[in-house]
TrEMBL record:
This is Reverse transcriptase zinc-binding domain-containing protein. Keywords: Signal. The lineage of its organism: Eukaryota, Viridiplantae, Streptophyta, Embryophyta, Tracheophyta. The keyword Signal applies. Residues 1-16 form the signal peptide. Residues 192-276 form the Reverse transcriptase zinc-binding domain. InterPro entries: RVT-Znf.
Length: 335
């Protein structure tokens, strides 16, 4: 039902912010009135998994993408003014039929850009700059031939540009029996998709984030969520609490000998280190432990076991993290 209304109406900013707050509270606190800390910014949560986010929908952008679908559908019936409707970043291209609804110089129909941009020196020489493609075709015994009209003939120094221009347009053959259509450039088949448009509006995020190692099949999603937060260094460790101006003693709750950071707690703390050694020895792997959890995840799938033990190998970090489940509860109780 919310998606239905979002596809019809522009969502007020205050409503979007209110809904996002409800979702944020549910994610980090479990309910609106519970206490807790928002460990990761909402903007980051909305990034795609590949970019280091959770792929949560940004309501404003999703609303915009849904509304664009109506504009796309109207394009098949109307032609004028399309540039004003669509985002300047994502203007659709033309799929040439008989050329009767496509501007020769202004539309993108035979190249990755309009001809006026590809050949600006020829555009200023065009006799009729608003000509349609069909206006630039002449019937001939072997089919239509290209015949754009210029105000004067080519000069010696312009021959190379003219030659490239005609070579380019002669690669395209209008189909006289069909009407021109819009083609969505971001989609293989050329049809508009809300999901594709939404993705094009979103930031890409961090391309180096080890998302394949974090989101592992057959591992419960809430466990993967913990791994995701750990890779980002955003679990409830002392250093994170102090960064948020919580007054707590700066020492490791477990060994009471070091500062408590995500990397110390999960891979360098003595018990964690022994657990890693034990699990790695079961797999018969010699491993030099990385400095950070992020580096560990980034290298994890490139090493270790192959074949049938591969699935178990991918879940090993979560087995080792599991020992801190009780610890996580202890930390939460301090907040
Ligand atoms: Zn410690």
């Amino acid at each position: 039902m919310p998606t239905y209304f979002l596809s019809l109406l522009t969502i007020p900013i205050s409503i979007a912010l209110r809904l996002e707050k409800l979702m944020r509270d549910f994610l980090w606190k479990g309910s609106v009135n519970a206490s807790g800390i928002n460990l990761v910014a909402w903007r980051v949560l909305c990034l795609p998994n590949k970019g280091g986010g959770l792929g949560v929908r940004d309501l404003g952008l999703f609303n915009k993408a849904l509304l664009r679908k109506w504009i796309w559908r109207s394009l098949e019936g109307y032609y004028e003014g399309v540039g004003g409707f669509m985002s300047t970043r994502i203007i659709p291209a033309r799929e040439l039929g008989n050329g009767g609804r496509t501007h020769f110089w202004h539309d993108e129909w035979c190249n990755q850009m309009p001809l006026r941009d590809k050949f600006p020196e020829l555009f200023v020489l065009a006799s009729y700059q608003e000509a349609l493609v069909v206006d630039c075709l002449s019937p001939s015994p072997v089919g239509d031939a290209w015949s754009p009209i210029f105000r004067r003939g080519a000069q010696d120094w312009e021959l190379e540009v003219f030659e490239e221009f005609f070579r380019l347009i002669q690669e395209v053959h209008p189909r006289s029996q069909e009407m021109d259509k819009w083609r969505w450039k971001k989609q293989g088949k050329g049809s508009f998709k809300v999901s594709t448009f939404y993705q094009s509006l979103m930031e890409l995020g961090d391309p180096t984030f080890p998302w394949k190692e974090v989101w592992v099949n057959r591992v419960p999603s809430k466990v993967c969520f913990f791994g995701w937060a750990a890779v980002k260094g955003e679990i409830l460790t002392i250093d994170n609490l102090r960064r948020r101006r919580r007054i707590v003693t700066e020492w490791c709750y477990m060994c009471k000998g070091n500062a408590e950071t995500t990397d110390h707690l999960l891979i360098h703390y003595q018990v964690a280190s022994e657990l890693w050694s034990l699990v790695l020895s079961i797999f018969g792997v010699q491993w030099v432990m990385h400095v950070s959890v992020r580096e560990l995840f980034a290298c994890w799938s490139q090493a270790g076991c192959r074949g049938s033990r591969r699935i178990a190998w991918r879940a090993v970090p979560y087995v080792c993290f599991g020992v801190f489940r009780v610890k996580g509860i202890c930390v939460r109780s301090r907040t």
